[in-house]
Amino acid sequence: REILLEVRNMKKYFPIHKGLFGTKKTNVQAVDDISFYIYKGETLGLVGESGCGKSTAGRTIIRLYDPTAGEIIFDGADISSMTENELKPFRKRMQMIFQDPYASLNSRMTVGDIIGEPIDIHDLATGEERQKMIYDLLERVGLSKDHASRYPHEFSGGQRQRIGIARSLAVKPDFIICDEPISALDVSIQAQVVNMLEDLQEEFGLTYLFIAHDLSMVKHISDRIGVMYLGKLVELASSKELYEKPMHPYTQALLSAIPIPDPEVTHAKQRIVLEGDVPSPINPPSGCRFRTRCQYAFERCKIEEPVFQDMGGGHMVACHLMDGDKA
Ligand code: SF4
Ligand code: MG
Question: For the chain, which domains are there?
Answer without folding.
Answer: 3-323 (3.40.50.300)
